[in-house]
Specification:
Number of strands: 13
Strand order of the largest sheet: 7-9-10-11-8-12-13
CATH superfamily of the largest domain: P-loop containing nucleotide triphosphate hydrolases
Structural class: alpha/beta
Distance between the termini: 57 Å
CATH architecture of the largest domain: 3-Layer(aba) Sandwich
Number of helices: 21
CATH topology of the largest domain: Rossmann fold
Number of domains: 4
Largest sheet: 7 strands, mixed
Bound molecules: adenosine-5'-triphosphate, magnesium ion
Helix content: 40-55%
Radius of gyration: 29 Å
């Protein structure tokens, strides 16, 4: 069922108040007009600038004179209106902070229930006062689907036919890719991005559409588009994790769907600091060739109450509109910490945001792969770790000797040095307890030392830095032990061997 059909059902079932979440006033209004024609209702629309159109016929026909503020007047008109009417109030959300408006809406909900009269509010974001949650039914008006995008494309191709300056031809494959890439844009955005491509590039160019999508992601303010700047070969060790990821590389294709494979949901990487959790997230995006969207968990919890719930909904929507993609929730515990504490300080907002997120994780059908990372389990709510949320929870421990050898090799090569000129085994042996980040740090410091001594980097420089560095695992031995104990029972190790 699409949004239009849903709205039609709700109007017929005499639901009193609907809230349509959408940016697209024109599309929503057109859809409502169709529904109203089908159902024989008169559609009245109201905005603060235009007032009520068409005017409402009062019983007896007299004109209403009013000194009420516009928004209250609009509600009064709805209250007095005859049956077989539908009212669309645009941009009404700012008024819902007013207690009088809230009260009037509750009264209206009672009056309209069972009457053939429907009040519809619409706005780009959802932010309902708690008092109204039970009285209002929310409808998400979805963005144009593939068929609608194709129709737009065809209209445009028709319009430029005969113009020898532009090449509007598309091979079937290009056409499919173009339509897919435009999903997640509004009707207006689709029209302008296609037109822009024809003007700028003289043809339909996928890159122009993708650029537009990056804009959307940026504007959302909560997601960040990450250019994949790491490769799987930059990750040392973690063989089990790498194998798991490798096996699923092709599972986002239509072919995999036909074969009966569901798109993987996501994984949680839990573990010791600096051992490559964030690195793997970035490398997977490159390996799977999918866009990587970083979710700023801290920023979700905006300063205003109610905003956080809106934020998480937006983030989910944007991610789904870009799907298939990887949603990277780095340092998850920073945002969701203290949920189990009952949200004492923020009147349950954290808990509500959290439950929205959990529900989405459980039920999502769009191919959005969630890549979550965390250092500290104790602050993560237990519900999060229940079966079915993540495909797998991996424990990323400190690298063992073999893994450290690999990591030394990777970072020496990364600095354009020949790794075979170094005794990597000896370095690995000398650096027990080091994380990948500390190995990298030792290499960088040794480069400074060599540069200062005005000669090429040598084994002894690296050895000296390794000796000088006290790894975090020494200072945090007890914490790490505790984490390991917890992880043994509940997670899968990301590496084959045990650390030494
Ligand atoms: N397994 C590894 N292989 C190669 N390099 C590594 C590895 N682990 C860590 N590094 C190096 O250390 C840097 C920091 O690691 P990263 O940010 O991925 O750690 P993390 O596990 O996310 O840590 P934190 O828990 O502090 O966020 C990486 O950018 C990389 O250069
Ligand atoms: Mg990290």
């Amino acid at each position: 069922m699409n949004a239009s059909q849903e709205i039609e059902v709700l109007i017929r079932a005499k639901y009193p108040i609907l809230y349509i979440v959408s940016w697209e006033e024109k599309r929503v209004e057109e859809a409502l007009q169709k529904v109203c024609t089908n159902l024989n209702r008169t559609l009245h629309t109201w905005s603060v600038t235009q007032g009520m159109k068409p005017a409402v016929n009062r019983p007896g026909g007299q004109v209403r004179t009013s000194t009420l503020p516009g928004e209250l007047e609009a509600l009064a008109l709805v209250h007095e209106a005859p049956e077989y009417t539908v009212f669309l109030l645009k941009d009404f959300h700012p008024y819902m902070k007013d207690y009088r408006v809230v009260r009037l809406l509750r009264d209206l909900a009672n009056r309209l229930r069972g009457r053939a009269e429907t009040l519809i509010l619409m706005g780009p974001s959802l932010n309902l006062p708690t008092d109204l949650e039970k009285d209002i039914t929310v409808v998400d008006f979805e963005l144009p689907d593939a068929a609608a995008i194709e129709a737009t494309l065809d209209r445009l191709i028709e319009a430029v036919k005969g113009n020898s300056n532009v090449d509007s031809s598309l091979k079937p494959q290009q056409r499919e890719a173009l339509v897919k890439s435009a999903q997640g844009l509004t009707q207006d955005e689709i029209e302008s991005v296609f037109a822009r491509s024809l003007v700028e590039r003289k043809k339909f160019d996928l890159d122009v559409v993708l650029e537009e999508k990056k804009q959307i992601i940026r504007k959302s303010g909560i997601l960040e588009y990450y250019a994949p700047d790491a490769q799987i070969k930059d990750v040392g060790g973690l063989e089990v994790l790498k194998e798991w990821l490798d096996k699923r590389g092709d599972s986002f294709t239509d072919k995999a769907r036909e074969f009966g494979i569901p798109a993987p949901k996501g994984i949680l990487l839990l573990g010791v600091q600096g051992c490559g959790k964030s690195l793997v997230a970035k490398a997977v995006a490159a390996q799977w060739n999918l866009p990587l969207l970083k979710l700023d968990v801290g920023r979700i919890f905006g300063s205003l109450v109610g905003q956080s719930e809106e934020n998480i909904r937006t983030a989910i929507k944007v991610a789904e509109s870009v799907a298939p993609c990887i949603l990277w929730a780095d340092e998850l515990e920073k945002g969701f910490a203290g949920v189990s504490g009952g949200g004492v300080s923020d009147s349950g907002t954290t808990a509500r945001v959290f439950s929205t997120f959990l529900t989405w994780m459980q039920e999502k059908t769009a191919p959005v792969f969630l890549m979550a990372t965390a250092n500290d389990v104790s602050s993560l709510p237990p519900e999060m770790l229940r079966k079915g949320r993540f495909d797998e929870i991996f424990f990323v421990d400190l690298p063992d000797t073999d893994e450290r050898e690999q990591i030394f090799g990777i970072h020496i090569k990364k600095r354009n040095r020949d790794a075979s000129k170094f005794n990597l085994k000896a370095l690995a042996k000398a650096s027990a307890g080091f994380s990948g980040a500390e190995i990298e740090q030792a290499i960088v410091s040794s480069l400074y030392a060599a540069y200062d001594a005005k000669r090429e980097l040598m084994q002894k420089d690296v050895v000296a830095e390794v000796k000088a560095l006290v790894p975090l695992s020494v200072m945090m031995r007890e914490d790490i032990e505790e984490l390991r104990e917890w992880a043994i029972l509940r997670t899968r190790p990301a590496s084959k061997k045990n650390p030494a």
